Structures are given as structure tokens and as C-alpha cells.
Amino acid sequence: MKPLVSVVVPFYNEDENVQVLAEKIRAVLETLPEYEYECVLVNDGSTDGTREALEGLRAVDVRVRPIHFLENRGQSAALVAGLRRARGEYILTLDGDLQNDPSDFPKLLELLQTYDCVCGYRVDRHDTWVRRVSSRVANRVRRWALGGGVRDAGCGAKAFRRRCVAHILPFNGAHRFMDVLLRRAGLTIAECPVTHHPRVHGTSKYGIHNRLWRGIYDLFGVRWLRKRYVTFRVEGEDE
Predict the structure, then answer these.
(1) Domain spans, the chain
(2) Are strands 90-93 and 158-161 parallel, antiparallel or unpaired?
């Protein structure tokens, strides 16, 4: 049986991007005949036509599995919900704004043959100066405060083996600190350069307030959590 790849994407008011991204995902994964795939697309309480767009995809492709939140709960909640409902041995994540590129999937999957998690980093960012500066500052402070870590914690392009999901805890901001908990659990992490595109449709959900300052604030909680986080293995149980 071919291994199953789950693609998890959170969407919040991205109705113009849904169809385009789904087509890009399908085009890439259909060039990888060694895998089966599914798309777990999470509607984070959108108020535009995102729900209808996702249901339209499900109507024509059984591999599309929409999840609809009753209210907007944020990117971390949407990602965790998708990760927990993914059925694949390999799980790939993207943002829903078309700035990540599914063409990076083959190299992410290749690295997953050796590592438990692969974190993308954007080598040529196409963002506003506010987003670039706040992200750069937050990443530097994060590495200083935590004694290391990945270079681009906010990048949505990531890949996981299924064993990672149990160690990703649901809290607001978790998507920026997944690597911290996975390292604490003894799992292996690689970094990989990925493509980044300028946003064409929709508007960014992040700025100085909810990207830089909140990210720095979250560091204190994650530092405490990393020290208190416990893992265990049970004899006779699979990973």
C-alpha cells in the first residue's frame, strides 16, 4: 500500500485563494505516484465565501476533507485541528494565502525519510517591510530566549511524521513553537529553504501587534512549558 500524505491548510477569509491553491497542490502531488494523498482544509470561522469554496472542492474530489470551525479561533487552533484529523503517515502544512508553494513538497517529503519534522524557511521573502522586520526581530529574540531553534518560526511550510502530532499542544501561538516541543520530545528536526510568493488576493491577518509583541510575550510561557514538558514511552506500544 502506498503511504498517505495529508496536506493541512488553514483558511480564514481566503475564498479567492481556495481553488487556486487546491489546483496547485493536486498538480504537484499527482507527479508523485509513490504516494496517495488527502487535503484537510480548515475553515477558521471565515465570514466570506471560504466555506462554499471548500464544499465545492469536496463535491468534485473525495480526497478533499473540509473542517469548519463555528467561530474564528486563530491559525494555531486551525493547524492543530487539521493535524489531529489528518490520516497520513506524512503531513505537510501550508498557509492558505498562496505565499507558500506546493512545489516544495517533494524536497520536504524527501527529508521526512530521515527526520521527524522539517521546517521551511523563506529565502526570498515577498512581504511588506513591517512583516519582514517584525518577523526578523521575533525570530532573533526567540532563538536568544530559547537557546536556539529554527531560523523562520513563522513559515507555514512544514512537514511532519505522524508521531509528531501527539507532542503539539493547542495554545494560541503554538504554530510558532512547534519545533521547540518536538525537540523537547526527542524528535529530529531539519530545516529546508522554501519558495515565497507575494500575496495577490485577500489581506494579511498579522501586523506588529499580533506578530511581534505577542510572539515575544509567548516566549515566557514556552520557556516555562519546555522545562515542565514530559514525554514517555510505553512497552509494547508503537511510536
Answers:
(1) 4-228
(2) antiparallel
Give the span between the Cα atoms of 96 and 209, in whole angstroms.
Answer: 21
3-state helix, strand and coil shares in percent for the chain, rounded to the nearest 5: 45, 20, 40
> Any idea which residue has 492543530 for its cell?
80
Residue 29 CA to residue 106 CA, distance in Å, equals 8
d(CA 125, CA 127) in angstroms, rounded, equals: 6
**Which stretches of the chain are assigned E, i.e. beta strand?**
4-11, 36-43, 64-68, 90-93, 117-122, 158-161, 189-194
d(CA 219, CA 215): 7
Handedness of CA 189, 79, 214, 201 (dihedral sign): positive
Q: What are phi and psi of 54, to 5 degrees?
A: -70, -40
pLDDT digits (tens, 9 = 90+) for 44-70: 999 999 999 999 999 999 999 999 999
4-228: CATH topology is: Spore Coat Polysaccharide Biosynthesis Protein SpsA; Chain A (3.90.550)
Q: Is residue 95 very low, low, confident or very high in pLDDT (cuts 50, 70, 90)?
A: very high
- Using alpha carbons, select from 195, 154, 194 the residue that is nearest to residue 178: 154
Contact between residue 168 and residue 80 where contact means Cβ atoms under 8 Å apart = yes
Adjacency order of strands within the sheet including 64-68: 64-68, 36-43, 4-11, 90-93, 158-161, 117-122, 189-194
Helix (H) / strand (E) element for 24: namely: helix 15-29
* Per-residue pLDDT band at 239 (split at 50, 70, 90): low
